[in-house]
Amino acid sequence: MAVRTYSPPWRRALGYLALAAFALFFLGPFLIQLATSFKTDADAANNSLSLVPNPVTYGAWERIFGFTDAAGLPFGRWLTNSVIVATFITLGRVVLDSLCGYALARLRFPGRQAVFWSVLGVLAVPGAVLLIPRFLVLKELMLFNSYPGMILPIAADAAGIFIMRQFFLQIPPSMEEAARIDGAGVFRTYWSVILPLARPGLITLTILSFQGSWNEFQMFLVATSDPQYNTLTTGLAKFSSGQLGSGTQYPVTLGAALLSTIPVAIVFFTFQRHFIGGQLSSAVKG
Amino acid sequence: MTTSIGSEPGTGGQGALAGTVQATAAPPRRSAGSALRRQERWAGWLFVLPALAILGVFLVVPIGLAFWVSLTRWDGLSSPFGGGAEFVGLGNYRDLITVDSLTRQNFVTSVRNNFYFVLFTVPLQTALALSLAVLLNNRFLRGRSFFRTAFFFPSITSSIATTLVFLFLFSGGGAVNELLAFLGIDGPNWTADSRGVFHQLLRPFGVDGPPAWAQGQVVNLSWWDWLAGPSITLCVIIALVVWTTSGTFMLMFLAGLQNINEEVLEAAEVDGATGWQRFRLVTLPMLRPTLILVLTLGLISTWQVFDQIYLTGNNPATITPAYLSYSQSFQNSAFGVGAAIAFLLFALIIVLASVQRRLVGTGEED
Amino acid sequence: MIRRTRAPLAMLAGAALLLTAACGGSDSGFGDSDDGAAGGATTGVRLSVLIGSSGDAETKAVSDASTAWAGKGGNTVTVTPAKDLTQELTQALSGGTPPDVFYVDASRFAALVKGGALAAYGDDLPNKADFYPNLLESFTAEGKVYCAPKDFSTLALQINTDLWAKAGLTDKDIPTTWEQLETVATRLTTGGVTGLVVGDTLDRLGVFMRQAGGTLLNSDGTAFEADSPQNLAGLEYVQKLARKGVLKFPKQVDAGWGGEALGKGKAAMTIEGNWIVGGVKNDYPNLKYTVVPLPKGAQQATLSFTQCWGVAAKGENRAAAVDLVKYLTSTDQQLAFTEAFGVMPSVRSAAGQFATRFPDQKAFVDGAEYAYGPVSVPGFDQVQKDFDAKVRGLSDGSSQPRAMLEALQKNGTAALQAAN
């Protein structure tokens, strides 16, 4: 309880014990994942709980980084694709969502309410329903199996627009009014007054967009079939359930999965504060 | 366009399923002059147009295309627009709902699976998230941010990566079964066991197969199959989703807890309420808006589970409507059926969300 | 109307591998192809090949061969093993960007032709007469040979010889009947070892139904006969062994397929096709095993599988694609594939060499004599999947053979009606 400052020591100990157990529950799988990536296939299968690889082998990592010639794990290609796609999607969302969010928060134009309600309506569309529709439109626009086909459909998102609108609403109107009295137009006000003020919001949006597009799976699954466009998510998913004979190569799979987690983890630990704030403000996205 | 020129902007903004949208703040005063106002009118559209175009072309239009496809028997090989596919009207919907076929059996099975998935996942993730938040909501706790980070970390990793890890942990000779072996329990082959959990629980009582009353068929499945509970493989996915989502929901509960006035709690304590009573009678009612938000978000997202199912494989014990929509299209070349399933799922989610909203209110009264 | 490829490969056997040799002149009498002639350059192009690989061995062999071809003409070829060939191919085809060359399973051929996905280049093959006529027939529709048969395989019994000897068994104990199979499977089952591990799918267990004298589709392909007493006898035999615990399915022993179970020493015996040779050579080089014919039920029977090299009708580089296929199906190249991953060549001119070069694979070759092909009805995939999902329940009693076959009958009949 929030106000308990004088709990008996045994209760405090119990509380910490529970917290430690939960920490193990949430982090344990990652530790096992790390240890497994240094194990041999046999060791991984037989001593999967052990955190100490015996023997320690770098075989899985050598395969991930392409030092051995075994076929089927073009990790570098997947990584490159993930970087390309995530960069452009993030860029798109930051620019387009903030423009749209600002207009919805501050600019008076005919049809604004209609636009706002449309955006809210789009928010309510469940993502899983869009699998087939998105495939169809990419096919009709001849964008199937292309980078634009992977990027454009999610280069703006209703949740991001909504978050940005909320951020802009929090900025006191007096700031922009002052700029306008000085004779600045809408664009200059936006660029030199509003955007600097909305920096925390932009950082949050950048982080969320990066995380979202880095981890995106469904969109890329239906947007491509050619393996040259595999990202870390689609590549791993297709590799792991594998072909008949490749069986269960846990060390390689888990190592690659771990590596795909690292960029997001770095961003997470660097910008944790924004991350957590953003997670809350995007909670409405449903 | 419903907004007349010069009307006060920013009066909208209630709504969204979760109902936490804040009303708009006051607009800038109208002192900037009419030239500026005119500039705003076209600048506004200029600002929203790029984003709207993307949402329109890649979200609204596709839904229209998919609806058309759901009325055809398109095999995915020709072009579905312009005579390439046989028009069957509502035939695909009829096949899914009223015609006794393998297609309906798969659809019904997927809905059953997803129902059990929701039934277990939503309460578990909510309860776990709330417990974590309560544990953490102590200003004198040491290492608070470490714990918060630890609990939240699975939420930010990709669903593919976490699923792979769980499939490994729950493999036949995997870590979970090793742990169970310490306790003298011979764990099942989690990732390949399609038996229903409820059936398994009945086994020790000598119920090995369907009793006479449970053999009747209702919409392609016997009562026995309807009441099977989630399959053992689906339990792995339940555990996985609880593990990955609790962190996010915990943050929401933490935010909610921090809004609770401590004086009320202290007053309750002075009145002699025990810790549990304070939690049940003060904290919980005040968390009601957050609780409703978490339940609604949980309900909506669990009905859409896909990535995890994709990795577990095409197995009637785990298929969900979202996955079936995909596999009917891309595996069975029945895009019409696949699209129809997507629309039925859409309808189901909207109905459930509004039913829930009506049952518990929107939580906006606080 | 599309000709179904239901004809058993039985005839293929005798004609082919055993008599083999010089009868290269038989005219198959197919009409001239008009749309097989391909467009595009044959040099300096980039081809993509999508394969449903049996493992690293096959992927590597196909990659290497394609690279060798590419090097000759200044082309590049990317070979991709699909996770799920049907799914990835459907997506690519419907997305309008098909791979240039891809595996086509005999059971999927009809649907692909119907959708206009395949270029009919088969009649232009210079060595067309060298292919086994029955294999060509599997890939013939409307009088045109659409694609070149890649190879074929049959099922046989593989025995881990170390475990065999450890259980005190000798060559004399090699089972030739169901009773004997049950006896040795029981004897071989100890703590960590299961006597027989078989894939939990109709593509493997169907062999017992065939051996009991059953069939899924009647001989002229007009009706299903899945719920016959013979099929029931076959499936009940499987159930009996499964309930005794002497037969298990790969996932029950933490393996992805029979070859993995055998290689890891978790299974003493398994039933797989030729692909197991390459699969275990790559993953378990130290495994000692022998391949023997499947034991007899009411009759001797096995299942056969075949695929062809499909060329996309909409591909821009059809000329180069056909050229690649010609290279890949040449006698020498097929023998190289055989060496790498064990399938049997689809051309008669390689049969003699295959037989002399791989005496230890005689059982597969012999199997061709009494082998049956897969059911080729559009939409049967889904029906089979439904059946496969219930197989696992045979071991714990949650599935009953009779009910499984009744469902197979009902769903199969529905698929057949929908296809006509």
From TrEMBL, chain B:
Annotated signal peptide: none
GO biological process, one term: transmembrane transport
GO CC terms, sorted: plasma membrane
Top-rank lineage group of the source organism: Bacteria
Chain coiled-coil ranges: none
TM helices/strands, residue ranges: 45-69, 115-137, 149-170, 231-255, 286-306, 334-355
Cellular localisation: Cell membrane
Residue ranges constituting the ABC transmembrane type-1 domain according to the UniProt record: 111-356
Topology within the bilayer: Multi-pass membrane protein
PROSITE patterns: ABC_TM1
Annotated keywords: Cell membrane, Membrane, Transmembrane, Transmembrane helix, Transport
Protein family according to the UniProt entry: Belongs to the binding-protein-dependent transport system permease family.
Protein name as it appears in the record: ABC transporter, permease protein 1 (Cluster 1, maltose/g3p/polyamine/iron)
Gene source species: uncultured Mycobacteriales bacterium
